[in-house]
Structures are given as C-alpha cells and as structure tokens.
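Researcher: Sequence of Deoxynucleoside kinase-like isoform X2 follows. Predict its structure.
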Amino acid sequence: MLSVASNISKMSANNVKPFTVFVEGNIGSGKTTFLEHFRQFEDITLLTEPVEMWRDLKGCNLLELMYKDPEKWAMTFQSYVSLTMLDMHRRPASTPVKLMERSLFSARYCFVEHMMRNNTLHPAQFAVLDEWFRFIQHNIPIDADLIVYLKTSPSIVYQRIKKRARSEEQCVPLSYIEELHRLHEDWLINRIHAECPAPVLVLDADLDLSQITDEYKRSEHQILRKAVNVVMSSPNKHSPKKPISTTPIKITPHMRIL
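Model: Prediction complete. Tokens:
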C-alpha cells in the first residue's frame, strides 16, 4: 500500500537532494530502455513508471479499464496516476542522481490535456484533476534539474506498440499516438501551452536498437556532468562512479510559459 505521507516525512528528514531527471516521451518511445542503459552507473536511482500498480489495484486493472472505456474510467485512472507519480516524486533517494520515467507534469500537460481536448473528461472532472495538480505544485515541491525528451515519430512508436503486444494497448489507434506527440512537442519544444520545469535534452529515439545505445551514450556527458557539478557544490559530495568521456550535445534552455 502506498504511504505518500510517510515518504514525504522521510524525505524531509533526509538531507540528500539528488540531481533529478525526468525521462519523457510518447508511448513506445523507449523510456524504460533508456533508464536501463544507466543501470551500469553506480549511485543512480532509477524509478520506472508504476505500470504494474495501474494494472493491479486490489485486483482491478485500471489501465485496461481506461483504454476500453475512457469516458467512464479516465477520471479514476488519472487520479490514481497522480497519486502513484507523486509517491515516486517524493520517494527518498540516497544517491546523487535520480532518473524518473515520466512525471506529474507530463501526466497533466499531455495525457489529461488530451482527455480534456477530446471530451473524454467532463469539464467538471478536468477541473478537479487540474485543481489537484495546481495544489501539488504550490504545496509539495516537485524538483527537476533536467528533462530528457525521447523524440519519436508517431508511426514508428505505433509499430513498436503493436510489436511489444501489451494487452491493454492493442486498442490504441495511431491517431491517439499522433495527438500525444503534438502535446509533447507543444510542451517540451514549442513551449506554447504549458510550464516546462527544467532544461530539455532532446534525443533521437527513432533509431533502432543497434544505434540507440550510441545516442544514449552521448547523453551521459550532459546528464552525469551536470549532476556532478550540482552534487559537488553541496555538502553531500557523492558523484557518479563512472568516467564521462562523451561529446556534449545541445540542451534547450529552461523556459516558463504560464
């Protein structure tokens, strides 16, 4: 059972403030694969999306219910997503670096936004979810130092989704993937409808598995070097224990649009 209050209390008692990276991208963009690449580094906490919790809440598969009947279950599903993601955000980390798959920001600015625009959510339901999001923003610190955006083409990730054959996703149409792509682009690249809480590092995630590892290696410099700079300026000086020898790549600057 989740214990959000307990985790928040533990975090407050722990002075460790890790360099936090949100790994964002469309369904099927390779977020889990990206996180697994960084398992080779010591002193990095990896937090994957709590999909198994969404698939089994006291025997109920909320993810499947949401995909099969979104008008009925979207509000319930997104409420639970907010709870589980908040628990991940506030989970204590004793390491200097924390990589997290998705965030409350993408839940609100991409997925809830899509449900609102497509009338999946009643205006009253959307208002409740939005008020919860705003309350969390103003009352519970959600720290981010960097966002890694795994940029993909909708047609490519659609084929990946079909290939991985996750049962709940088989009813997902290409149009849904295309709409989510536009929302990610508007949030992280175009900056036209939502707040971006940290600088954005854009990686080409259309590459196949034989090439994507090299792309991920190129990101090590930006992620780990920036992390080292942050943690070495704090009292708790524990830097990642692997050398960094890759070439820097461009990061989109931090920008806030209210």
